[in-house]
């Protein structure tokens, strides 16, 4: 949450503490690298992810993060782009329910004009996470490009509902955070 709000030092401190508590898990290095990416230092994040993958070659999250970082390459026929697709697929081999990786694969297929393959990935993502806005949006766009217009109207309605719920959740989260920061009333003078 700190990384999303731009408080990178706090985010990295939390990630480091989580890693100290459980050095065998790979989620905190993944999150730390995500914070590094958000600091606009993708080259450092790429270096760190590659190092972590050497230590944790079976981490679906790290393969997924590497794929995301590699997607910076604009040319769809580049070796980097091909490596991104390979890494995204490796993440899915290790963890088929990794919705972010499915969304990334769908996005890659969309960029390549392979809308049927994108539709397949979107539908798989939605089986694991029916409320995923990204998968719903990608499915909507892919269906439109594939000429499958009969499903569009219900998807537009569903995407609108998901977006409204997401906005409400964010408002609630901010309200809760604000309430937590309010001073608590003094319960009276201390007893001596």
Layout of helices and strands, plus pairs?
Layout: H1 8-21, H2 27-38, H3 42-55, H4 60-70, H5 79-94, H6 99-111, H7 115-128, H8 133-145, H9 152-181
In short, what is this structure?
This protein is mostly helical and 192 residues long. The protein is built from nine helices and no strands. The radius of gyration is 20 Å and the shape is flat.
- The CATH homologous superfamily of the largest domain: Tetratricopeptide repeat domain
Number of helices: 9
CATH class of the largest domain: Mainly Alpha
Overall tally of structural domains: 2
- CATH architecture level-2 label of the largest domain: Alpha Horseshoe
Q: What fraction strand?
A: under 5%
Largest sheet: none
Shape: flat
Radius of gyration: 20 Å
Low-confidence stretches: 1-6, 22-26
Number of strands: 0
The percent range for helix content is over 70%
Descriptive notes:
This protein has helices spanning 8-21, 27-38, 42-55, 60-70, 79-94, 99-111, 115-128, 133-145, 152-181. Helix 5 runs antiparallel to helix 6 (99-111) and helix 6 (99-111) runs antiparallel to helix 7 (115-128). It folds into two domains: 1-90, Serine Threonine Protein Phosphatase 5, Tetratricopeptide repeat; 96-177, Serine Threonine Protein Phosphatase 5, Tetratricopeptide repeat (Alpha Horseshoe), CATH 1.25.40.10. It has 192 residues and is an all-alpha fold. It starts with 7 loop residues before the first helix and ends in an 11-residue tail after the last helix. It has nine helices and no strands.
